[in-house]
Design goal:
The chain has helices at 3-13, 28-34, 47-61, 73-76, 79-88, 114-118, 134-146, 159-162, 183-195, 210-223, 255-262, 312-322, 332-345, 358-368, 382-389, 410-420, 432-437, 441-447, 463-471, 486-492, 503-515, 531-545; strands at residues 18-22, 40-43, 65-69, 92-98, 124-127, 152-158, 199-203, 227-229, 244-247, 265-269, 287-292, 306-309, 374-377, 398-399, 426-431, 452-458, 496-498, 519-525. It has 546 residues and is α/β, with parallel strands linked by helices.
Length: 546
């Protein structure tokens, strides 16, 4: 069998549905082999868009998303998505081309050491130097991409290797079972929880798996212990639950942190130090139990006193069977914090000023979207407002990045969601800065006849950095720019462009976009004037008074 044919056969063997990418001449044998495959090729307008789509596919399905590029600049354009997937624990395979390795074709034109470049930001990176190794290397790449902790892997297929004849056999896909937690660790955790007076459960991104969601809900229901989440742990348990305190969108000084500060024990499920800290540990302070697939990495702000290592679902089920509500547990303060949080978050939901407050945008989207509908976020100051204020009813219905926190991922992520869940409403909420980093993928979305709505929060500036700049007491400098006419820009790609003139107009346009097929872009002026007064000033004062 031709080597490139075997590569496709190996991918089919792994259940690959899509390959996202921008092919080059070094990929042409691979492309020819893909022509008659069941795998669908999704051509994007930039390798970064392809990588973000592949990573999001992996995040949602648990199976590696696959993306493709040529050598040199095509491969370097995958670096940011590689880091995005690796830090965010999203399984993804990158396939890059290369010049012939057995003889020089064009000296060193376009050649960089892609394998070495990928090494620090992947779990596995290999150049295929023998076509008879393709099947085993594809199987190993998929095994490692999926294995906890999931992440990015990379294979480089040189032009001459792709043309070789090779053994046609592929390797059987063999799964594995994550070991169950040790009973000694479970018993120690139960003892610590029983001895605590105000235990809290923290849910992180690693717990965002369906079976874990069910187990955690049972634990909370049976014990009555309150819970909060990291940004990437949102929705693991329906956030309308009576014991939900909120999301730690900031690392300190939010209302929620008053409860965290009072707690004497945190049961931290599925968190690692790559996600922005939801709280800071201090020596001699509260105790933390780390429940995850692997032990905690020791960090100056995170050094748990106990590791419960193994399959998280089994850990939670074992804890649920053994934990008994204690008579001296007192959650009155947590309930007070919960009510304070809820009251504050609702404060600006009905404020109809225009340009629109981000809190109002959050409220209107929650009001118009169903339980399973999905919002994808780019990276900007609005991410904090959504993490704090948006109530998730189901897992993975608010997709944000709190690990690499890269701009440019919001639109491609929404496109991947639409491919996987065409029956759900999908909204990408992006800043004007992040949108312009991959806005060319509008053409891809239109070409694929996708149904999605893109809301551009337009402030003609890098708003997140402006917020930080003001908090540090610096002058407003160096962060403003001008934008194209986003309505005309959308229409030039064949999408529908909209620009509301007031709150009522936005509500009407939003309803129309959500109920109408096609790609819609809403250019929405946003008012960020409350970012500093609330997030930097008011929270620090009020949270101390709780």
């Amino acid at each position: 069998m031709k080597a490139s044919d075997l590569f496709i056969k190996a991918l089919e063997n792994e259940g690959v549905e899509y390959i996202f990418g921008v092919p080059g001449e070094e990929n042409l044998d691979f492309l020819e082999s893909l022509k008659d495959s069941s795998i669908k090729l999704i051509i994007t307008r930039h390798e970064q868009g392809a990588g973000f789509m592949a990573a999001t596919y992996g995040r949602l399905t648990g199976n590696p998303g696959v993306c493709l590029s040529t050598l040199g600049p095509g491969a370097t354009n995958l670096v940011t998505p590689a880091a995005y997937a690796q830090l965010g624990a999203m399984p993804m395979l990158m396939i890059t081309g290369q010049k012939p390795i057995k003889k020089s074709k064009q000296a060193r034109f376009q050649i960089i050491d892609t394998v070495d470049m990928m090494r620090p930001i992947t779990k596995y990176t290999k150049q295929i130097v023998n076509s008879n190794n393709i099947a085993s290397q594809v199987r190993e790449a998929f095994r490692l991409a999926i294995e906890e902790r999931p992440g990015a892997v990379h294979l480089e297929l040189p032009e001459d290797i792709a043309q070789e004849d090779c053994d046609p056999d592929v390797f059987e896909v063999v799964g594995h079972i994550v070991p169950k937690p040790d009973d000694t660790a479970i018993d120690k955790a139960v003892e610590m929880i029983h001895q605590a007076k105000m235990p809290l459960i923290l849910i992180g991104a690693g717990a965002n798996r369906k079976v874990i969601c069910d187990a955690l809900k049972e634990l909370v229901n049976q014990t009555g212990i309150y819970f909060f989440t990291t940004q990437m742990g949102k929705g693991v348990i329906d956030e309308r639950h009576a014991k939900y305190l909120g999301t730690a969108a900031l690392s300190s000084n939010d209302f929620l942190h008053a409860a965290i500060d009072e707690s004497d024990l945190i049961i931290n499920v599925g968190h690692d130090v790559i996600e922005k800290p939801p709280f800071f540990m201090k020596k001699g302070g509260k105790k933390v139990i780390h429940v995850n697939f692997s032990p905690a990495e020791v960090d100056p702000v995170y050094f748990p006193q106990l590791n419960v290592v193994g399959d998280i679902t089994h850990s939670i089920l074992k804890l649920t069977r053994k934990i008994k509500p204690q008579s001296d547990w007192n959650f009155d303060f947590f309930e007070k914090v919960k009510q304070e949080v809820a009251g504050h978050l609702r404060k600006y939901f009905e404020d109809t000023r225009f340009p629109m407050l981000p809190q109002r945008v959050v409220h209107l989207l929650r009001k118009n979207l169903g339980d399973k509908d999905v919002i994808t976020l780019d990276n900007g100051i609005y991410k904090i407002w959504f993490a704090r204020n948006y109530t998730c009813y189901q897992p993975k219905t608010l997709l944000l990045d709190n690990a690499l926190a890269s701009m440019g991922a919001g639109l491609p992520s929404a496109m991947a969601v639409n491919l996987l869940y065409p029956d759900r409403k999908v909204v990408a909420v992006v800043g004007d800065g992040g949108f312009m980093m991959n806005s060319q993928e509008l053409e891809t979305a239109v070409r694929l006849k996708m149904n999605l709505t893109v809301i551009i929060l337009n402030d003609n500036a890098y708003g997140m950095i402006k917020w930080k700049q003001e908090d540090m007491g610096f002058a407003d400098f160096g962060l403003d720019y001008s934008n194209p006419d986003f309505v005309m820009y959308a229409q030039s790609y064949g999408a529908q462009g909209h620009r509301p003139e007031n709150d009522a107009d936005f509500q009407k346009i939003l309803g129309h976009c959500l109920e109408t097929s096609g790609v819609h872009v809403i250019d929405l002026p946003v008012d960020y004037s409350l970012n500093h007064p609330i997030l930097n000033v008011m929270l620090k004062e009020k949270s101390k008074k709780l």
